[in-house]
Amino acid sequence: MDGRLAPDLGDAMGVVERISRAIALGxxxxxxxxxxxxxxxxxDAESPWHNARHSAGVVDQMTGLGPVQRFFxxxxxxxxxxxxxxxxxxxxxxxxxxxxxxFGSEDDVVATVERAIAPLGLRIDRASPMVDAxxxxxxxxxxxxxxxxxxxxxxxxxxxxxxxATLQDLVESGTATEAQLERLVEAxxxxxxxxxxxxxxxxxxxxxxxxxxAIDSSERVVTIxxxxxxxxxxHVVRLEARPANAEGAGAITIRSLLRSALRLRxxxxxxxxxxxxxxxxxxxxxxxxxxxxxxTVHANSPKEALLRIETLALSAGDTSETAVSRQLLAAVDMxxxxxxxxxxxxxxxxxxxxxxxxx
Length: 359
Fold this sequence. Notes:
Layout: H1 15-24, H2 32-46, H3 48-63, H4 69-72, E1 79-83, E2 88-91, E3 96-99, H5 106-117, E4 130-134, E5 140-144, E6 154-158, H6 167-172, H7 178-189, E7 194-198, H8 204-212, E8 220-225, E9 235-240, H9 254-261, E10 268-271, H10 278-286, E11 294-298, H11 302-314, H12 321-331, E12 334-341, E13 344-351
Parallel strand pairs: 7-11, 7-12, 8-9, 8-10, 10-11
Antiparallel strand pairs: 1-2, 1-6, 2-3, 4-5, 5-6, 12-13
């Protein structure tokens, strides 16, 4: 760390280094309250006109995400994107906007990533320049360092922000019509298997969460996610995948969790997103008494959604195209397509009769 808190404060203060030294010597505890107290004391004595503005910045730099911590704390921000130390973008729901925050150097970006992933037993360096992590609040962090990233370190944080609390909020926000809402609720209550399709940031997880909330509370639901974002009422069992640790061990895959879920006596299974070979296990589960299950997938249309699930299932390598196609035809009852349009989110299709021919 170089100790820079802001361009106008300069390097001379060395507040971060001095507090770090105090922690190393045992004079200050490494927790936000004690760091804030020590920072306020130093700044008040040496630069009181900067105290109010920068004491919080010291805490963020030492225990949080540095200059992007304030965006991480903003409930309206869904994405924080760092393209090197001087280019930071955020998304408040109306598209990406560049902000004036900046890191002091590339080393500061790397230090922030390391600080975020260290408690998770993960690491990132030139030998292993990419990392996926789920932060303690459920946010997902992905970082890439040189040489994999050509123009400096990259960091992307995706936060799960439930801006809408009920299905009716979808109508009020313009995401769905009353007729669409009625049709979706009937599908859930009628135990139809639903796939929610759309692009990144289209609102797939939010819609899935709201639809799943309509499941009768007497049913046992098992949720499986890369990062636990779903929050459902009723009888719910939550399973979460985990990447390998710094030694390359300890990974828990969605596919292994799906197989475990089948032994937990679920009435319905909800997979946060299908993106790999687990698609085959999901299709099998949907054809063995787990009607009314749900998942999401990245795709541009209902037809492409089913083709993508089929392709992912075939990547498992222990089945045939004909078998997968027939099982998928029997398994999925409805595909809901949600897209981002003019900064908002909108359900553009609810398809219960999607042609599933393979190419």
